[in-house]
Amino acid sequence: MSLFEAKKLRKNFGGLAVTNDVSLSLAAGDRLALIGPNGAGKTTFVNLVTGHIKPDGGSIALAGEDITGVKAMQRVRRGLVRSFQVTRLFADMTPQEHVALAILQRDGKASRMFGRHDAMRPVVEEVGEILHLLGLSELAHLKVREIAYGQQRLLEIALAMALRPKVLLLDEPAAGVPQSETARIERALDMLPPDLAVLMIEHDMDLVFRFAKRVMVLAAGTVIFDGSPQDVTQDVAVREAYLGSYANAGSAA
Amino acid sequence: MQTVLSIAIDALAYGMVLFVISIGLSVTMGLMRVVNLAHGAFAMIGGYLASYATRDLGLGYAPAILIAVVATAIIAVPIERLLYRRIYGAPELTQVLMTIGITFCVIGLANYAFGPTLKTIPLPETLSGSIDLGFRAIATHRIFAIVCGLIVAGGLWFLIERTAFGIRLRAAVDNAPMAAALGVRTQLVYAVSFAVAVGLAAFGGIVGAELLPVEPYYALRYMVTFLVAVSIGGAGSIPGALIACLLLGAIDTTGRYLAPEYGEFFFYLAVIVIVTLFPRGLAGRFK
After folding, report:
1. Does any domain span residue B71?
2. Which of A93, A113, A127, A143 to probe by mutation at the B interface, max B CB count within 10 Å?
3. How confident is the model at residue B54 (pLDDT cuts 50, 70, 90)?
4. Residue range A65-72: average pLDDT?
5. Would residue B248 count as lying in a domain?
6. What is the pLDDT of residues B144-183, one digit of tens each?
7. Helices (H), B27-84
8. A83-113 residues labelled b (16+ CB within 10 A) or e (exposed)
9. Is the whole-model pTM more than 0.90?
10. What is the pLDDT of residues B175-213, one digit of tens each?
11. Does the CB of B162 have a partner CB in chain A at under 8 Å?
12. Chain B residues touching residue A116 (CB < 8 angstroms)
């Protein structure tokens, strides 16, 4: 059974089908990369999945339940989580507080609202484990504005992990990270739980090839390829869609 | 020496009362970014309710404080839901107009319901006497006000910096959409913060009634003073507000003792100097 299933999702903006009957299913443990040239409709598709925009047609199911009408916040609670972009981290809060917040939200313990977050042993321990796993322990008590960009991106992954999602959407996890630090991001991605279904949106084809077991290509709102990473570069339709952009610019485009 | 000590104690007590009331405004302005000119109105409502509870219902000082603070916070809940929620993120002029409107409505209602006279909140015997230090007696109420200020400062710092609620509040303030994406119910967090801010205003209004007498125009009379305290301290900063209030309390009290004929001249002169030197407040947390 698929853990996540989007069926014939459709979104029109002013008569133009930005997402045109896109179907996608993920099983536990999947590592799927969604790629496509600029303007292919990747962002719109992600927003449809997270619930930030409403589809004009189609349905979305999570663990067998229809969530097409479920609000974005409730989707997070149900285990459909999108990694957070750095610009959305809380500049004045520490990594420790970020991860603690994610854990508190996940557990939804309203009764703990006024309790000390740093005295809740299970929370503190889990925060410590997650930060340690991602090599952020030493930065636990610095403000996010004081830590390096690459480490902020690691913190995004930490946040997503703390929410213990069933399905994780990773939005360009290595974008803007200096080449010297991308290895750390990749190692962090390798540490994601094996049964987690991951959908990665990424431009960096090197990362896509290393991470994904399956690749989908979106062009002009339609899925034009769905298969293995080995086959994607050989596909004629994909080459045509990328002609003039990635094909000429090489792998780092 | 005697005078110096009198001034110091009065200044400290006044500064603390100013702090207890203003810190709530600092929270709404600094954290929730609402220019809440009606903050003094809530302090006044607290004062009226406490006066009514002690004088008309015959309740003791402590239960009267508790009831008045809780009741003021409860009154604030529908006001937040119906009125303030519309002006979060609105232009500052809109916020000013809305909250000054609320202020005048509260003044009108207070005048209508309780008349234009001054309302007292009788102190219990334990607070109305004085403490003898051997060389000098100090009014117990002044000490009480100072202790209240310290407790509020510590408690609020703990709430914001150390509790699970504090994390949610800071997250919601820093980046509301991101906090919501994590599942934080930002509207609830704002509502609770607003209620806490208003509760503190009421508490300050009651504890400070000896220094800032409760009457219908209270809401307007001290509005500028509270705003000054917040902007000098830097909206959203607890240490900033504390320092600012103690500083302003000292300047104002000294001025009143030594040069009463100048009125509030020295107070506002100091304000102008501080604003010139620190345009973002002594410890502005945001902006």
Report:
1. yes
2. A113
3. very high
4. 88
5. yes
6. 999 999 999 999 999 988 888 999 998 888 888 888 878 8
7. 39-51, 61-79
8. bbbbeebbeebbbbbbbbbbbbbbeeeeebe
9. no
10. 888 888 788 888 888 899 999 999 999 999 999 998 999
11. yes
12. 162-164
Chain A nearest C-alpha distance from B275 (Å):
25
**From A90, A112, A114, residue closest to B171, measured CB to CB:** A90
b/e for B216-228, b at 16 or more Cβ within 10 A? Answer: bebbbebbebbbb
Q: For strand A197-201 and strand A31-35, is the pairing parallel, antiparallel, or unpaired?
A: parallel
Provide the token pair at A10. 């459709």
Asked if B170's CB is within 8 angstroms of A115's CB, the reply is no
Kindly indicate the confidence band of residue B72, based on its pLDDT and cuts at 50, 70 and 90.
Answer: very high
Q: How far, rounded to the nearest angstrom, does the alpha carbon of residue B263 sit from its chain's CA centroid?
A: 22
DSSP-assigned letters across all residues of B108-159: HHHHHHH-SS-B--PPPHHHHSEEE-SS-EEEHHHHHHHHHHHHHHHHHHHH
Domain carrying residue B179: 2-277
Tell me the C-alpha distance between A10 and A29, whole Å: 26
Residue in chain A lying closest to B184 (CA) = A105
Residues of A in Cβ contact (< 8 Å) with B186? none
Q: Residue B64 corresponds to which tokens in the numbers above?
A: 């009267």
pLDDT for A193 beyond 70: yes
Contacts of B165 in chain A (CB under 8 A): 113-114
Mark yes or no for CB contact B170/A90 under 8 Å: yes
In angstroms, the CA A10 to CA A197 distance is: 23
Per-residue pLDDT tens digits for A114-170:
677 777 778 888 899 999 988 898 888 899 989 988 888 899 889 888 988 999 998
Residues 142-161 of chain B whose Cβ lies under 8 A from any Cβ of chain A: 159
Please indicate, yes or no, if residue B147 is contained in any of the structural domains.
Answer: yes
How many A-B residue pairs are in contact by the CB < 8 A criterion?
74
Strands A31-35 and A214-219: parallel
Which ipTM score applies to this complex? 0.75
Q: Does residue B283 lie in a domain region?
A: no
Give the residue carrying structure tokens 């040239």.
A37
By residue count, chain B amounts to 287
Number of structural domains chain B divides into: 1
Which residues of A make CB contacts under 8 Å with B? 72-73, 76-77, 82, 84, 88-93, 97, 100-102, 104-106, 108-109, 112-118, 120, 159, 163
Both tokens of B214, joined, read 């409760």
